[in-house]
User: Fold this.
Amino acid sequence: MSILTWTYIMVGITFSIYLGIAWVSRVKTTKGFYVAGGGVSPLANGMATAADWMSAASFISMAGLISFLGYTGSIYLLGWTGGYVLLALLLAPYLRKFGKYTVPDFVGDRYYSDVARFVALVCAIFVSFTYVAGQMRGVGIVFSRFLEVDVNTGVLIGMAIVFFYSSLGGMKGITYTQVAQYMVLIFAYLIPAIAISMQITGNPIPQLGFGGTIANGVDTGKYLLETLDGLNQDLGFSAYTQAFGPGSKTMLDVFCITLALMVGTAGLPHVIVRFYTVPNVRGARLSAGYALLFIAILYTTAPAVASFARYNMINTINDTAYSEAPNWVKNWEKTGLIAWMDKNNDGIIQYRTGDAFAGNPDFSGETGPLGQRMITNAPTDNGNEIYIDRDIMVLANPEIANLPAWVIALVAAGGLAAALSTASGLLLVISSSISHDLYYRLINRQATEKQRLTVGRVMIGISVFIAGYFGIHPPGFVAQVVAFAFGLAASSFFPIIVLGIFSKRTNKEGAICGMIAGICFTFFYIVNIKFMGGTAWFMGISAEGIGAVGMVINFVVTLLVSQFTPPPPADVQELVESIRFPRGAGAGIEH
Assistant:
C-alpha cells in the first residue's frame, strides 16, 4: 500500500481512539472540566503530562534543530528536561496542596488581589497562545505532507479535532486522550529510530548507536559523530560536535536559553494544572517522577535521530543530479518545505552553508526547466542551492532511510499526537482562565456550573480559531515559537509562584509589578528582534534566551517593591506557611 493509504489508516485509527475516549469521558461538572475531578492516578497523569509537555516542538522540531545546529541544538533537550526537575522539587507538591484549578487562581488567592489575578490571567493567555501557535504549525506540516493537503487545510483539520475532544471532555477527556497519544507518539518515535540505528550502525539501541561506528558503506568503521564533523566542515559548516566558536552560539546565550527553557517549563500553566488532577500531594510527586521517566525515553533518543537524519540527508542529496534526486525530496517539495534553485545551471543539487533564500521562502508556484520548485528571491552570494525546513527532519527521516510505508505513516500519526495533545492542554488553560478566573471570579460570582461550563466551551471554540490563525501565520520554526512561550512563562510566572510558596513577605504590590516588568521586557525584546529587525542588544542574548533576563527582572522588582510596601495579611502568611509543609497532606486546601 502507498504512504497515503497507510497514513489514512493510521491517522483514522488513532483519531477514532481519541474521539472515542473524549465521548466516554465527557463531563458535566466544572471540577471534571477543569481538573478531571481530581481522581487521575499518578501513572496515568505522568503519561498524560509527558504527552502534554512533549509537543510538536519535542517530537517534530527538536531533533530537526539538533540535526542542523549540532551540539548547540542540545540546549532545547537540556532545558526542557532540566525544567522538570525544578517542577518536581519546587512546585508540584506545593501547588497541589494549595488545591486551586488554575495558576491565576493561585496568584489571585496567594496575593489577595483581583488585580494580581487579572495580570496572571493575561500572562497565562498570552503564553498559551504563543505556545499553541507552534502546535498548530506542526499539525499543518504533518497533514500537508502525508495527507497531501496544503498547510492551511491541515491546520483547519487539526482545529476541528482538538475542539471536539477538548470541549466535550474537558480535562478528564484530555487526560485520558493524552495517555493514548503518548503511546502513539513514543512508538512512532522509537520504531524508526531503532530501525535506522540498525541500518547505519548495526546497533538496535539508538542511544548507543549514536556514539558508535558506521556499519556499512564508504564510511564503514568510522565513528558516526566524527564522520558528521568531517561532512559538516567539508560543506562549510562548523563541526557537528563543536560546543562554542565561530558559527555557534556564545556560551552566555546557550546558558540563558537553557535557563529560560528550564524555568519556563516550571512556569507553564498547562503543565502546572496537571498536578491538580491527582488525588493528593503524594500523587503529584509521583506524577512528576513518572513524567520525567516517560519524557526521558524520547529525549535520550532525539540526539540519535538528529544525527542519523543528518548523515542520511547529506549522503542522499548533496552533489546529486536533480533528475536523480530521491523520492523524499520530490515528495516534500510539494509542500513548499523543500525547494531548490539551480544557481549555476549544472542540474546538480549543492548543499552548502548559507541561506538558500533571502528572508522567508517565497515560492513562485512555477517550476524550473528540470521540474524543481523555484525560489524567486534566492541570493546568489553563496553556494547553497537547496532550502530544507528544519521542521521536516523527523517526519522525513523514515523516507530518507527508505523504511516501509507503514513506518512513515506511523511517524505522521505520532507527530499529530504530539501536537494535538499539547494544543488541547493549552486551549483548556485559556478556556479555564477566562471562564473560571475572569467570568466566575471577577465578573459573575453567582454563575451556575452550567453557565461556567458553557462559557468554558465557547472560549475553547474562540481559542481554537485564534490558535488556527497563528498556526497558519507562525512567527518562526516550531521549536523557536515554543521557546518564546517558555521565555514568557519564565519571565512572568516562575518568580511569582516560587516566591508565593517560599516567601511570606512577598506581597500583592510586588507580584503585580514583577509580572508586568518581567513579561513586558521579554515581550518587547522578542518583538524587536523577530519582527522589527532589531539586534540582540543585551549582551548578545538571543530572543530565545531573553526570558532568563526577564525572570531576573521579575525577581528583583518583586522583592524590592515588596520590601517598600506593607506585608501580606496574617492569614495569607499562615497560608504560605502551610503550603511549604506538604507532608501528609491529602486533599488541597479549600477556601
The longest strand covers residues 363-367. Confidence is low (pLDDT under 50) at residues 358-380, 584-591. The longest helix spans residues 151-201. The chain has 22 helices and six strands.
